[in-house]
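Hey, weird one. I pasted the (rape) hypothetical protein sequence into the form twice and got a warning about non-standard characters only the second time. First submission, copied straight from the form history:
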Amino acid sequence: MTDVEREAIVNDESEPNRFSDNASKSLVCQLHSGFSERFLRWRRRYLPVGGGTRRGHGSVKLSGPLVSGAAYCVSSCSMIIMNKIVLSSYNFNAGVSLMLYQNLISCLVVAILKLSGVVSVERFNWKLIRVWMPVNVIFVGMLISGMYSLKYINVAMVTILKNATNIITAIGELYMFRKRQNNKVWAAMFMMIISAISGGITDLTFNAVGYTWQTANCVLTASYSLTLRRVMEKAKQSTKSGSLNEVSMVLLNNLLSLPFGIILIILLGEWRYVISTDVTQDAMFWVAATASGFLGLAISFTSMWFLHQTGPTTYSLVGSLNKVPISLSGLVLFDVPLSLPNLFSILFGLFAGVVFARAKMS
């Protein structure tokens, strides 16, 4: 309370018929001032004004990274496991068709969100499409190879073999962007190589076709990230606004993948299999396939959300730690035959992934 306010209070309370001396005036002034200050403190603490708002913002700031990180981990784990269920448990032999269905769901959901005003999407043009086409070709190959690798390899080994993507990406960065890695990073990558080789040797469910698909997936995944980094600025210059947000990239990738998927389904003859197979008559199969489509889109949004809430270093570390529950849940849910050497290789590979993320942060 300011001095001016206190003088106003004294003047208001100094009517002759109410107070007869200066002592009474002083006493009333002190009581009024103390009460007012206590009331203001109470209001700031319990009412949604000033302090209450700050306290609310603090809790949101604290919970944001935790909630977004948890959402990213749950969606990532669920997506891999759901794809494994659709391809292996239902014995569905049409990975391209599943990719096409998932991408169609992603396009529909983003379109609905755009029409609802929830997200904003950049207007596409032919110049942008031509620039983005190489990225999309690699994107389609990455998705398809990932589908077929999950068909033949258990979830734990897939997550460990994916470490090879980090090695290929680091080599690509060295030659394409002249980005050198420190010794800790190279040491972690050497550990990844050892874990991948030992894991393959000790894998009781080893499948040469599956490992070939996974090798192709690692190469394509690394190529996707490297090509995307190179094309990004050129793609932004091809838009009217000069920018291209993440939602637009998600929609562009999924939209352009639809004609590729249709062409591949026709060329590979998958459409005959999809029409004739009995699994498409199972309602639960469609529930699982639809859920995998929503989870694929959820990964895109939760990863962007988590990256915005934290940063690339935390995102990378959590991504490496996220392989632990994925691997363990895959071993338990699908009853994978396991030996002690293979389990050690898997755990060593998970540890190497964490060491790699920590090395990149330093």
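That's the output from the first submission. The warning seems to come from a hidden character in my clipboard, not from the data itself. The chain has one domain: 68-361.
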